[in-house]
Amino acid sequence: MKKFLKLFVVAIIVLSLSGCGITFLARKNVGDSKIFSKEDIEEAMDIVCEEIKKSEGYVLLELKYEEDFCKKQMKYYMEQYSADEAIVLRSKFFASKETEGALEKGEIAKWSWILVRNIGEEWELKDAGYP
């Protein structure tokens, strides 16, 4: 736990100097899936991490795939975005400073990330938010 706290403090300092999001501290949980391969889930997670890196002031703490949670929403998002597949990932992240519109400094947020794709194509991030 002490090691994590030290890394977290270092990340906050680096983040405040760099102006971009930090993802290397995140605990990633691919979970078990009968729908997606481990690689499918990891590819979707990589896209979420890249998006967070673009966002000034965020530190990703956790990113996970939960099959039951995803299954409840898949059909809706596949229909909404006319896609063959949809995946919903859940995250927890920290705002190290005031962010544009979404979070206040020091706030820890839980968000869902919606990604879709057609067979043979890459995942595409469509929306985020909604715990």
Gyration radius, in Å = 15 Å
Total strands: the figure is 5
Report the sheet with the most strands, covering strand number, pairing sense and barrel closure. Answer: 5 strands, mixed
Low-pLDDT segments, ≥5 res: 14-18
Distance between the termini: 26 Å
Average predicted local confidence, pLDDT: 81
Strand content: 25-35%
Q: Please, how many domains? A: 1
Strand order of the largest sheet: 1-2-3-4-5
Give the H and E element order: HEHEHEEE
Helix content: 25-40%
Q: How does the helix and strand content classify structurally? A: alpha+beta
Give an overview in words.
With 131 residues, this protein is α+β, with helices and mostly antiparallel strands. It has one domain. The chain has a five-stranded mixed β-sheet, with helices on both faces. Strand 1, helix 2 and strand 2 form a beta-alpha-beta unit. It is globular. About 4% of the residues have low confidence.
